[in-house]
Design a protein that fits this description.
Number of helices: 2
Largest sheet: 3 strands, antiparallel
Biased composition (Basic and acidic residues): 1-10
GO molecular function, one term: ubiquitin binding
Strand order of the largest sheet: 3-4-5
Domain SEP: 49-86
Order of helices and strands: EEHEEEH
Structural class: alpha+beta
Low-confidence stretches: none
Number of strands: 5
Biased composition (Polar residues): 33-44
Helix content: 10-25%
Radius of gyration: 20 Å
Strand content: 15-25%
Protein name: NSFL1 cofactor p47
Length: 86
Amino acid sequence: HGAEVVEGSKDKKKSKINTYSGTGYRLGETNDDTQVIPGTSVQNRNEEPRDVSLKMWKSGFTVDDGPLRTYEDPSNAEFLTSIKRG
């Protein structure tokens, strides 16, 4: 038999978005280059949103008055992608 079309639920309820808030690990090629990514604490998740200054430059960007972050750095690319997602 082929594929079968299954109708979705008639309920139009929005599903709850589950987000992971535990500690993560970015695995490297050796034990020495594994990176620990700490999870967000309950306190941080409950903070009010705040305004920050994001300035885009030819060679990178700055957040508030922080250092220049290059576009080529993979962690900066992840940051910019999350900014684009809102």
